[in-house]
Structures are given as structure tokens and as C-alpha cells.
Amino acid sequence: MTRPVLRTMTRDDLDRVLELELALFGEEAWSRQMLEGELGQQPASRFYLVAEDDGHIIGYAGLLAAASQADVLTIAVATNHWGQGIGSSLLSELLAEASRRSCSEVFLEVRIDNVRAQRLYQRWGFTEIGVRRGYYQPSGADALVMRLDLAAAVGQRTLAGRLWPFASRRDGGDR
User: Fold this and answer.
1) What tens digit of pLDDT does each residue of 73-108 get?
2) What would the pLDDT profile of 6-43 be if each residue is shown by its tens digit?
3) 5: helix, coil or strand?
4) Which of 33, 74, 92, 121 is 20 to 30 A distant from 163 in Cα terms?
5) Which long-range contacts (CB under 8 A, 24 or more apart) does 129-136 make?
6) Distances (CA, A) of 170 to 30, 118, 130, 135, 149
7) How far apart are CA 91 and CA 125, in angstroms?
8) How many angstroms separate the Cα of 78 from the Cα of each of 23, 81, 93, 139?
9) Is there a contact between 163 and 52 (Cβ–Cβ < 8 Å)?
């Protein structure tokens, strides 16, 4: 397998992203309208990426950045590509973007039963700060709220054992 290319998500990617969204999240998948709304706020306050391998979208991620805070809105990787570092690459790019936008902290919510994703976030320095009961709908699953002190991580010049800043793997034009 070649290393996937990370690039900015466009409206042309929506059909393929929605297929992956539905396969991964079922009844809790975001709708086309939700994703179109998110992309409509890019680049002002949003940053969305896709991971593409041989013309196929195998992952995607999104970030909301406002003032000194950022929120990881979504990270998804096709199950047949788990364990290949794609989620970590997407998260790396989101954190680099948060840093470029002068954010000092990054938050996220993750399903309380998604231990695999929690481990990824913990490896990158996120810590648990709370639980949102019934956050995910319609299942009513709880969300673990996590936070990363990005300013401290950048100040230490390392994050999860990786040299900071992250090298960008995106291609294409500027935002």
C-alpha cells in the first residue's frame, strides 16, 4: 500500500465521504446537509481533510477553530485500513492546523465505548476531562470529553513522541 495523500475535503468528495460515514457510524452518521454546512464554513472556522489512496477516500477528519480553542469534530478511517497510521496522520494534520490558527487547546468528544479511538487520543496527549451523558443520538451513548493543552505540547517541541511541528502531507492549493 502506498502512503495515503491527505488533502483538503471539497464538495466533490461528499458522496464518497457519506458512504464511509454511513458504513462507520450507521444511524448516527452525519447527513449530507450537515457536511455541506460544515464545508460551507471552510476555511473561516473549519478545516476538513480526506485521506485518499489510489483515488479512494479511506478516511476523513474535521476541525473547528475559533479564537484560542479548537475542537476535533470527526475522524474516521475505513475499517480495512485500521492500524496503518491513517487516523494518527489525520489527527496530526488537525493539530498542526490548530497550531497554525494559534489555538492553545483542543477538545473532542469520543464515544465512551470507543476504546480504540481513546487510545489514539491519549497517545497524542489528550486527557479526560468529563462525560456528556446521552451525547450520541439516536443511541443515547455517552461521550468522553478530552482536552489537549496544545500550547504546552508545542512549547515542549514534542507531541506523542513526534517532533513538532508536524510535516504537512497535503497537496493542492492553499486555503
Assistant:
1) 999 999 999 999 999 999 999 999 999 999 999 999
2) 999 999 999 999 999 999 999 999 999 999 999 999 99
3) strand
4) 74
5) 135/109, 136/28, 136/111
6) 24, 25, 33, 32, 24
7) 12
8) 8, 5, 18, 21
9) no
Q: Does domain 5-157 have CATH number 3.40.630.30?
A: yes
pLDDT-based confidence at 156, cuts 50/70/90?
low
This prediction's pTM: 0.87
Count other C-beta atoms under 10 Å from residue 55's C-beta. Answer: 6
State whether the Cα torsion 168-48-53-20 is positive or negative: positive
Residues composing the chain: 175
| Residue 94 one-letter amino acid | L
Partners of 76 in beta bridges: 60
Contacts of 118 (CB under 8 A, 6+ apart): 110, 144, 146
d(CA 125, CA 99): 15
